[in-house]
Amino acid sequence: MSTTSSTHLLGRRGQQFQDLLARHDPTRVLCWPLDVGKNVQWALGHDLFGHLLTPAFSWPTSQAGWDTMLQHLTQTAQDLSATLLLVACEPTGIYHEPLITRFQSDFSLALQDLHSPALRLFFTRPTQTQRNREQQHLRLRKTDPLDLGAIGDLLRRGLATPVPHWTPDEIRTREELRFLRQAHKEHRRLLARLTNRLDQLWPGLIGNPRPVRQAPPDLSFQPLATQFWQRQFVQILLQFCPNPYQALALGESGLIALFHQHDARCGPKTAQKILSAFDHALLPPPALAEIYAELATQEFHHLHQVQTQLETGYARLEAALPQTLARFPLQIPGVTARLLAPHYGRLAPVERWDDADPIWNQAGCTPITHDSGNHHRHGAMSKQGDPGWRDALFHLGESVWYHGAYFGHTYLDARERGQCHIEAVFHTAHRFNRVALHLMQQGEDFAPPVIDYDQFQADFLKRREQFLAHRKTTGPTRPRPCRARRARR
Q1: Is the dihedral of CA 150, 153, 159, 165 positive or negative?
Q2: CA pair distance 477, 474, nearest whole angstrom
Q3: pLDDT at residue 479 above 70?
Q4: Are 341 and 394 in contact (CB under 8 A)?
Q5: Three-state SS for 90?
Q6: Which residues contact 99 (CB under 8 A, 6 or more apart)?
Q7: In the chain, fewer beta carbons within 10 Å around the N or the C end?
Q8: Which whole-number Å values give the CA distances from 210 to 195, 226, 426, in the listed order?
Q9: How far does Cα 270 stand from its chain's mean position?
Q10: C-alpha span between 335 and 399 (Å, rounded)
Q11: Whole-angstrom Cα distance, residue 228 to residue 208?
Q12: Would the pLDDT of 263 be above 90?
């Protein structure tokens, strides 16, 4: 954890950059911005004052192209007698990863200041590059050399972010999370497709819980299942008897035998529920039902494969996470590998954070702030950040407050001050974020600084029981803003 004092206009990051430059002659610092692409890369060289040393040139994404770039870099560094080399690029998709890892492996001594010139790697955000380019050029004018100039300008001014150094365990965690995010997207897409198919095959029999509850009495309906992908009898039907006409032909005894044949539970009540639902549904003609049934079975098997991949991915993740620094916050009651992994995957490596505030900011959890003269406005959460990270922090806050006294008292205190559930959960997550970062950076086990923790835990359990009992009888203490506006109208 950095102890650098924040005396620079740009805060700790700017101060660290100035401290780095203070150890070198400014005239012997070489800046080397890179514009990363899938097949073609661009580079140029300039000094710390912006004087061009090597004009922009392109090179292919290959070993020969890497060697060509290194020749230009080595020659320029020798001509300048450089003692410090600053390299920056945009983290665009995954195309920057081979380049960064090659720099880290081939220049490992230079990254540790054991070889001259010393090397530092930086990232610039694409938005930063775009805004910087538009300050100097027409808005609709974009070329690779112009992007190189914008990246180089940000680099020499200390506005770039140092590239983190990932350990193999952290890379495994990050890649597992990337796989799981893509699998979740595929799962949602397949689930929507299967839902539409069942609306064709079993019209009106697949419902969502909320519309079922909110339906007026004169239009109430009884679906066969809500959240059908979690119902075992629906899964058996989709695999072995999706055609409603076939199910009606089997009858009650045939359905029970079919379920028992595949080691599934089914009694007369369940069988009668299925038959009654199919008998009253507005079914498609038998010829169409046969087509829809075949497609529904195929789509269900595809969905089941993705679910299996998700479970396998989570199992690998749960095995890999305890090998990293995440093992320390895993000791907190209510924290599981599945809950912590999305947070840790974005957080690691922990050495790059000076404190927990930038984490909260990048997740978009900071409030909107606007101060001008005598006007001071502190509004709602900005949500200008990573929504997945924000969601992970919310779920962590929701879990840790319920399972442990150290964060549970924080949540209950917030509720007593009048905060709603969401506000109190984020308030708890804010504290968890600080504690988790401290544990990982210091390598400490979770040990709450409470003298009599048993009594502290007993007080929390009593408060939690009273709070939950009161919430059941009174309902939400605060209406939603949209409901409040409708009430005022």
Answers
A1: positive
A2: 7
A3: no
A4: no
A5: coil
A6: 34, 36, 41, 89
A7: C
A8: 16, 9, 26
A9: 40
A10: 7
A11: 9
A12: no
Q: Quick one: tokens of 237?
A: 């039907």
DSSP 3-state helix, strand, coil percentages of the chain (rounded to 5)? 60, 10, 25
pTM score of the predicted model:
0.72
Domains delineated in the chain: 21-163 (3.30.420.40), 182-316 (no CATH), 326-488 (no CATH)
Query: How far apart are the C-alpha atoms of 251 and 247, rounded to whole Å?
Result: 7
Which residue type is seen at 415?
Answer: R
State how far the Cα of 155 lies from the Cα of 134, in Å rounded to an integer: 17
Tokens 């064709």 appear where? 200
Give the CA-trace dihedral at 337, 421, 408, 461, to 10 degrees: -110
Residues with Cβ < 8 Å from 139, sequence gap 6 or more? none
Question: Residue 484: its pLDDT value, please?
Answer: 43
**Contact indicator for 209, 226 with CB cutoff of 8 Å:** yes
For residue 112, which amino acid is it? Q
Which pLDDT band, with edges at 50, 70 and 90, does 429 fall under? very high
Inter-residue contact 397 to 327 (CB < 8 Å) = no
Q: What is the pLDDT of residues 90-105, one digit of tens each?
A: 987 888 989 999 999 9
Residues 288-346: pLDDT tens digits? 999 999 999 999 999 999 999 999 988 888 888 888 899 999 999 999 988 998 899 88
DSSP 3-state assignment of 204? coil
What are the C-alpha distances in Å from 391 to residues 9, 192, 350, 404? 32, 22, 20, 20
Query: Where is pLDDT greater, at 479 or 382?
Result: 382
Long-range contacts of 388-392 (CB under 8 A, 24+ apart): 388/181, 388/342, 388/346, 389/342, 389/343, 389/346, 389/362, 389/363, 389/364, 390/363, 390/364, 390/365, 391/342, 392/339, 392/342, 392/343, 392/346
Q: Which residues contact 16 (CB under 8 A, 6 or more apart)?
A: 2, 4
Task: Output the DSSP codes for 358-422.
Answer: HHHHHTT-SEEEEEETTEEEEEEE---S-HHHHHHHHHHHHHHHHH-HHHHHHHHHHHHTT--HH
Query: 141 by DSSP, 3-state: which?
Result: coil
pLDDT in tens, 61-90: 999 999 999 999 999 999 999 999 999 999
Instruction: Please give the Cα distance from 227 to 209 (Å, whole number).
Output: 8
